[in-house]
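quick one, 422 residues, struct below
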Amino acid sequence: MNPIALVKKSKLLSNSFIYFVGTMIASAGGFLFHLIMSRMLDVKTFGEFEALISLMYIVSVPAATLITMIVKYTADFKAENHPEKISQLFNSFTKVLIFWSFVIFILFISASPLIAGFLKLDSFWPVVILGVLFLASFPSAVNQGIMNGTENFFAMSWLGVVNVITKILFAISFVCLSFGLSGVIGGVSLAAVFGYLISLFPIRKYIRPRAGKLKDSKEMLIYLMPTFVVTLCLGLFYNADVLLVKYFLSPEEAGQYGAISIIGKVIFFITGVIATVVFPMISRAEKEGSERNLLKNTLFLVVLTSVCIILVYFFWPTLIIKVLVGSKYLGIAKYIGLFGIAMMMFSIVNLYSRYFLAVSKFKILYIFVVGLLLQISLLFFFHQTITQVIYAMLASMFVILVATYIYYRYELEKDQKSYVRQ
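---
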């Protein structure tokens, strides 16, 4: 079959393609941003920047949790043809999140000296400036979740592109004005605020102040609690290593590890697009009994993409480093392939987590909590060198992946037995 016809026929492929193109442009811009910063900042400051970005992702877990929940329920409301419930969802959660974003902002600022001390920063001001980002990220979660749940991937794509362009422009301007690390973080925060404002446009038809009160809130809160734990664990799987490396290793080694992390996470940036697209589709496919076939097809795409990138890392590491982060990081060439394998395993775990959340199977959170404890323990005891850190990541992600797959097989067999009894 003609590849173009195949893409048009398959909703997964067509949606993935739309969101993939937009996200790839945004990701390319994101990597350009990191590439520019790796050249404009010294290795020490670049390591501090990567640590703060990792901290941002971890603190933003509640927002990511809300996106996951809002995507699921928006997809359900759309499938049931209840647009008024989407409006009610927008009204209820936007009001609550604006309030809590200010609370978190104040708490974050209050703790900024402690955070700066842990990360060995010369000043706490970059931490304070980072707090501004949370004023926008929590309300933005509602808008992003509605766009994803209604499968408005075109809007999500162009918003991602606009966000990365504004981030680059703001950050470069502030660094050129000699604001250093504070300037970079300020650029990221201002871009987030601007992104929230323009994200209201694609969902404007759901912004109805008189839509009424949401009646499904109790059910959503029940779904929200385990989703928060799963999302928190995923966020820490993905970012805890950068923070711990910043604490345990020298500033120069932390900067090198930050570069390794950027290159290795290319795999997740690409495959994460596929997992994001498939999440609302799994939620609907469950009603038709076809969710596992959708998971298998998506898993194939994730593994194939990951393996191709990893092979490039092993065969042409020097070229990749020069293109992405610059020649001053050539010493990390022997690490990027191995770290890429860890990121492939994480990408597969992330896909399975999306599946379990979409079908409301929450026992996976116990595996993730134990896996997180294992990862942090390994990093705590094995952190003397970058090599030890990477092998600790490989070992922990392998155990988490195997345990996740065993749980998937367990749920599959249980459902099959239940079907036979019926």
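The longest helix spans residues 386-421.
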